[in-house]
Structures are given as structure tokens and as C-alpha cells.
Design goal:
binds zinc ion; alpha/beta; 6-stranded antiparallel β-sheet; GIY-YIG endonuclease; Rossmann fold; about 675 residues; 7-stranded parallel β-sheet; binds adenosine-5'-diphosphate
């Protein structure tokens, strides 16, 4: 480990801590013990929050000096020395309490949570200063004869100015060789570049849109919350397109005016190009981004800038909750009902719930935003734990789309097809008017099941027994649970019949095939995670749609996200019942949320929108709520159904997963547990 980055005593060291004492140090490892005691050598100062290097067995590790008393009974000879205190902003007390809280709540060793709060270890070293050039003292003499190119470079540098070589060459319009030539001639000498602000300050008073009356009232309430510098949770609701985003961006502006930081959590940051565009329009600059796909360098720079208070606004995925904000003033969770906020591996946590805790510990305002809030959040609003602001109408002239069901029992698609005559007719009319249509089916691939017509055998994943999904474009079968893939077999693996394997049910690829036959002239795009693998593809797709280079969009749940497609007027849901089956407590609630969000894509500009839901159960409460638009009544019914049995949010539910190589053993263990 480089000596240069170690500093002792620590920077900004408050006085009053005796050296030569003991401290507790938490390590970013899943250790049950939580913290270990170390000795602080004479002359070193280590305070709670400081990042320190300590010996750990044969290695060294970076940990955080934790609060609390070291064990006095531990004999001094067993203690090892803290080796160094790192020159990084200390972890704030509020983040330390958060790490402990999350650990206790999720039954995870706190060190495993700490690891999430130390996700950019390189940021604990100060960023290396970059080299540039400045004028050598006394280099400019009257008698110096210079080429015009060299003159152009020197004209850019006043006394004491330092600029990078590439910057100088570009600004002077010369080749980099000219700068090097000046350096070789001793006219320019190397110097360190001043540290530039990596994240420009968003301007809270940059002219934004004029808010409608109810938007303005909601924005004012939120601004007051932020200005209060106190914890409080506000639920912001309103139909899709009612302008909730503009309202909470006003709260972000207030946090900036207060000189505090703001964090906005989005469920699918990779698909948020349109959101970022709006941020840019509102504030004139880009926010700092935080998600798993950042380069390690951006990661380090962003983490460090957040810790030093130099990234005023961060937009991120759930992991951004663990960034080291020194002064968080506002925390927004957009689409708070989204399941993407739940982390299902490693430390299992729900980012929406943890956001509330993070805000409380930081004395920050918390805003939960959704058109269809979760029952958990609604219940908290109803009992008065959260404040509630509601926007009643869509912004501008756009009305809400008309939602109708198509009863598949009566309006049956042709054999082997999945679009009913009514839906086909509606798509035809939409395209004839020069408008765009979207067909939504939350299933990737060609067909969710392949079975043998000869013996009835169903093709299952050898690892996890779920059905294998045919992906016809790649001529493969895939397991969407474990990722197993294999080529599509010619013979049935059970009865050896040839050519007897038949696809059953639709995926988006199969809907595409049907659409190709029905509307050969329509320009089509499929939006699914395998066709839109990342932010660049998502942006390109959104731009093509906005520019009307596409007539028909066929997509999985990624089309439901906050897109604003002004020319899209028809949304057809191919299988509205999908998602209602299964034992999940929240199956109905989630289906409603997803379909409501998809419906919200239709008719966002002047032309009215229409939504058609293909279903076998048009009387299901979810369908009725979508048709009537009365989501509140549906949620009240959901609550009434859950309350008597103490189901969440009226009680708590824990899932225990028993796993074993041996089925019987797992069975036995589960029974014993029961
Ligand atoms: P929501 O978040 O509730 O779905 P948005 O904030 O995305 O709604 O607003 C929907 C559309 O209306 C967006 O294109 C947005 O730019 C526009 N919009 C919202 N409020 C205003 C306003 N006050 N002035 C102009 N355009 C607005
Ligand atoms: Zn599998």
C-alpha cells in the first residue's frame, strides 16, 4: 500500500481524543462479530468515521473506526495496531447509524452492509492530480521568434495559468505536437492542474416550466418540507402524465438553494434517458449518476465528489442509498411501488423502505412518488404517518386514455394467433390515422412452453425444472430463472418423435410474427431486455419512436417505464391476466400497477388515447379498476382483504428458503421448521 496516501494524524482531526488508546473498527466483510478492536499507536488520531488500514490475519484491510467502547478485557498483547488513517472524508454518523440499522433490520452482519457503503474503495485515496502546462518564468522575451501556431498557444496562457496539453492544442487549433515543441524548447513547463468541479452546480433558478395551479401548490408544500431541514415523508400521487416529476424537481431546486444535497432514486436508471433530458432542461446541467454499470473511474470520482459535498444532485439506482452524503436534504423515490427497488440477493432489502430510514437519520425530507402507490405506502399516508399530495389531472390538454376490456371468451383470436379481431381492427385504425400503437406482453422470447404433440412431454430446465422458453431468433431454448440455454432439439427427448415439438402460448417474438403478417407495411420495434440491452439502445429506440420512424411498438415491461411518446395513441395489452396467477400476495396489486403504467403511455399529447385489455376475466377487480380508473377503490378492497389475516402491511411476513441438493432432506427440514 502506497505510503503517500496515508496520513497521520488524520485530516480535520478534532481535538480531544487521546492517542495510544483502543478503537473498534468495522470491516466491510460479512463477519458476525461486527467490529474488532485495534490499538491506536502513539501520535495517531483515529475518530469514529475515519477510514483506517488495519492488519487482518496475514492481509491488510480498510475499515471504519466505529462508535462504542472497545472491550477493556482484551489483553493488550493481542491487539494489533491501526496502520494508517486514510485521507478521505470520514463516514458520517448518520451513515454509520444507517449501516447498523439496515444490518439489524435485514438480519445481515453490519459489515456486509458496510461493504455497500464502501463500494468504491479507490475513492478513499485522493484523486491523483493531473499534469498540465504553464509558462516557464521569464520564457516570453521580446526577441523570441515564434511560429503562428506556437504564438496561438502562448496567447492562451496568462501568468500562472495551467492548462492540459490537449486542451491547449484544441483551443489554439493546433496539433498536440506544437505544445510538445514548446515544452521541449523550455517555454512551457509542467504544472499540476487545479482540481476542476467534476459536477457542475445545477442552477435552481434556471427557468423551468410554469406549473399549473395544483402542481404549484404541491411544489410549494414540498419546498417548505425541504426548507424545514427536518425529517418527514410525503407521498406524491397523481395519474401518469399529471406532472409529478416537474413538482419534485422543484423540491430538488429547494435543496440546492439550501445548499444541501438531493438524491433521486429511479427504478430503472438504465432506461432513464428521457428523465435525464428533463433534468437538463430544468437545471441546465447533468446530475451525477450512480448505478452498477459505471466505469470504475467514474465510480471513484462520483463517490468522492458525493463525500466531499461536490455532487449536489445524485440520480441513482437503489445502491445510491449507501453513498456518503455529508448533508442530504432531500431523498426522492420515483415510482415507489416498483419491485425493482427490492434487492433479492446479498443483503436483501427494499430501497423504498430503507430510503425512509436514511432520510430520518439524515434529517432530510423524503418524497415517495407514484401514480399507483404500494398498499404499504398508502396505508402510511392514511394513518397520517406520511403527508399526502395529489395531482388530479393530466398536464395540459391531454386527457386520460379510455380503457376497455376485450373478452377473449367471446372475441377469440384465430387458432394459433393471439390478437383478437377487435384489437387488430383498433391497430389498423390507429395506423391509418398515422398514429402509433403499442402491443404489450410481459414475456420475452417466442413461446413460454414447448411440448411434444406425440407424447405430451414438456421441455423443462434440467437445473430448476421451470419451462424452457423458446427464443426463435437465436434458435435456442432458455430458462428465464437460472439462465440455462440449449439448442432447440429436433427430436422429443422423451419419445424421440421427430418434428413433434410445438410452441405453446405467446412471447413478444411471436406477437411480432403475427403483426408482420397482419401489418407488413408497419415499421416495428421490439422493446425487451434482450433487444434493448442498455441505455444507448434505449435512447436510440426512444428517439426513433419520438421521431415517428416507428409505427408499432411491441414490448415487455420495459415499455411501461416513464416514457413520453406523444404520437402513441393505442395500447393493446395482449394478455392482461398474465401475472394474476400464482401465490404472490401482491399479484393483483402488481398487475394493476404494471397495467396502469403501461396504459399511461397512451394519449400523452393532444390526440386522445385508448387502451384495450385482452382478458379471460373482464370482471376481475383489477380489470374493473383499470376500466373505471378508480385505483383508490381497488386499493381499499385490497386492504380490506389483507387486514383480517394480518397480511402485510397489517402484519409482517418473512420467507424462509430451505435449499438442499436432496429433495427429501429439504422437505424434512422444512417440515421440522414448521
Ligand atoms: P408524471 O411524472 O406525473 O407522469 P410528468 O412530470 O412526466 O408526469 O409530466 C408529463 C408531461 O407533461 C411531461 O412531458 C412534462 O414535461 C409535461 N409537463 C408537466 N408539467 C408541465 C408544466 N407545468 N409545463 C409544461 N409541461 C409540463
Ligand atoms: Zn433453470
Amino acid at each position: 500500500m502506497a505510503e503517500a496516501r496515508r496520513k497521520s494524524p488524520a485530516p480535520n482531526q478534532p481535538l480531544g481524543v487521546a492517542s495510544g488508546t483502543r478503537v473498534r473498527v468495522m470491516l466491510p466483510l460479512p463477519l458476525e462479530a461486527g467490529t474488532y478492536d485495534y490499538r491506536v499507536p502513539e501520535g495517531m488520531r483515529a475518530e469514529p468515521g475515519h477510514f483506517v488500514v488495519v492488519p487482518l490475519g496475514p492481509r491488510e484491510a480498510i475499515g471504519v473506526v466505529w462508535d462504542g467502547e472497545p472491550d477493556p478485557a482484551l489483553p493488550a498483547r493481542r491487539l494489533k495496531n491501526v496502520q494508517a488513517v486514510l485521507d478521505a472524508p470520514p463516514m458520517t454518523e448518520s451513515l454509520r447509524r444507517f449501516v447498523e440499522w439496515v444490518g439489524a433490520y435485514t438480519v445481515t452482519p453490519p459489515g456486509a452492509v458496510l461493504r455497500m457503503a464502501m463500494s468504491a474503495p479507490a475513492a478513499l485515496e485522493p484523486a491523483p492530480a493531473k499534469a498540465g502546462w504553464q509558462l516557464a518564468p521569464g520564457a516570453i522575451r521580446e526577441d523570441l521568434r515564434l511560429t503562428p501556431a506556437r504564438r496561438a498557444v502562448l496567447d492562451l496562457l496568462g501568468p500562472g495559468d495551467v492548462r492540459s496539453g490537449s486542451d491547449l492544442a484544441e483551443a489554439a487549433g493546433v496539433s498536440p505536437g506544437v505544445v510538445r515543441g514548446l515544452a521541449d524548447a523550455g517555454i512551457l513547463v509542467p504544472a499540476l492542474l487545479p482540481k476542476g468541479a467534476a459536477f457542475p452546480l445545477p442552477d435552481p433558478d434556471h427557468p423551468g416550466p410554469t406549473l399549473a395551479a395544483d402542481q404549484a401548490a404541491a411544489a410549494e408544500a414540498l419546498r417548505a418540507k425541504v426548507a424545514a431541514h427536518a425529517f418527514g415523508v410525503t407521498l406524491l400521487t397523481g395519474v401518469t402524465g399529471s406532472g409529478k416529476t416537474e413538482v419534485y424537481l422543484d423540491a430538488v431546486a429547494q435543496a440546492l438553494r439550501e445548499g444541501r444535497q438531493a438524491l433521486v432514486l429511479l427504478p430503472e436508471i438504465a432506461l432513464s434517458a428521457q428523465w435525464l433530458e428533463r433534468f437538463r432542461r430544468r437545471f441546465g446541467v447533468d446530475p451525477a449518476l450512480w448505478h452498477s454499470e459505471l466505469s470504475s473511474r467514474t465510480r471513484r470520482d462520483t463517490w468522492r465528489a458525493v463525500a466531499e459535498g461536490e455532487a449536489p444532485v445524485v440520480v441513482g439506482a437503489r445502491s445510491a442509498l449507501f453513498l456518503p452524503f455529508p448533508d442530504l436534504g432531500l431523498l426522492v423515490v420515483d415510482e415507489e411501488h416498483e419491485t425493482a427497488f427490492k434487492q433479492e440477493d446479498g443483503v436483501i432489502y427494499h430501497a423504498r423502505d430503507m430510503a425512509v430510514v436514511r432520510a430520518r437519520l439524515a434529517q432530510a425530507a423524503c418524497v415517495l412518488v407514484s401514480a399507483t402507490p404500494s398498499l404499504e405506502t398508502l396505508t402510511n399516508a392514511e394513518t397520517g404517518r406520511y403527508d399526502h399530495l395529489h395531482l388530479k389531472e393530466r398536464h395540459g390538454s391531454a386527457g386520460l386514455p379510455a380503457v376497455e376490456t376485450i373478452d377473449l371468451r367471446r372475441d377469440t383470436p384465430e387458432r394459433g394467433r393471439f390478437l383478437s379481431p377487435k384489437l387488430i381492427e383498433a391497430v389498423k385504425d390507429t395506423l391509418a390515422r398515422g398514429e402509433q400503437a403499442m402491443l404489450f406482453l410481459n414475456r420475452r422470447g417466442y413461446a413460454p412452453l414447448t411440448l411434444c404433440r406425440a407424447c405430451g412431454h414438456r421441455l423443462r430446465c434440467p437445473n430448476c425444472t421451470s419451462w424452457l422458453v423458446e427464443h426463435r431468433a437465436q434458435r435456442r431454448l432458455q430458462c428465464h430463472h437460472c439462465g440455462h440455454a440449449e439448442p432447440l432439439p429436433r427430436f422429443c427427448p422423451e419419445c424421440n418423435a421427430e418434428g413433434s415439438l410445438t410452441p405453446v402460448g405467446p412471447g413478444v417474438e411471436r406477437v411480432l410474427e403475427e403483426v408482420e403478417a397482419l401489418f407488413p407495411d408497419a415499421r416495428r420495434i421490439v422493446m425487451a431486455s434482450d433487444t434493448i440491452p442498455g441505455p444507448a439502445a434505449a435512447t436510440a429506440a426512444a428517439e426513433a419512436i419520438a421521431a415517428r420512424q416507428v409505427d408499432l411498438i411491441i414490448g415487455t415491461q420495459i415499455v411501461a417505464k416513464g416514457w413520453h411518446f406523444p404520437h402513441l395513441t393505442l395500447v393493446g395489452v395482449v394478455d392482461a391476466d398474465l401475472g394474476l396467477a400464482g401465490g404472490d400476495l401482491r399479484a393483483a396489486e402488481r398487475t394493476l400497477q404494471l397495467l396502469h403504467q403501461v396504459s399511461g403511455r397512451a394519449g400523452r399529447a393532444e390526440a386522445p388515447g385508448k387502451v384495450l385489455l385482452q382478458t379471460f376475466s373482464p370482471d376481475h377487480p383489477v380489470m374493473r379498476a383499470l376500466v373505471s380508473g378508480d385505483v383508490a377503490a381497488f386499493m381499499a378492497e385490497e386492504a380490506a382483504g389483507r387486514r383480517p389475516g394480518h397480511w402485510p402491511p397489517f402484519g409482517r411476513l418473512a420467507a424462509l428458503i430451505v435449499s438442499s441438493e436432496d429433495e427429501q432432506e429439504a422437505d424434512r427440514a422444512a417440515r421440522d421448521l414448521g
